[in-house]
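Amino acid chain
________________
===
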Amino acid sequence: MPNNYSYKSSGANSQGNHYCARDYGSSASNSNSYHYSNSNGSYYYSNPNGSSYYNNGSGYSSYTPPSGGSQGSSNSGRK
């Protein structure tokens, strides 16, 4: 995964939801990657290698590999 990036934008809204977008340049599979996190505990990452990860903050998570192939998911439930 590339280490060099420049910030495109970031911020938070009045509900406490945060986002950050980065530009990793043309050498990255996904040059315009971003992540967000919400006040309800959920978050999502769109990574520069083309993978993505989502967690709903309540025990469910999902990962998509860079190739876009089969997803992995987990639903452990929060106790």
About this structure: The beta strands are 6-12, 18-23, 32-37, 43-46, 52-55, 60-64, 72-75.
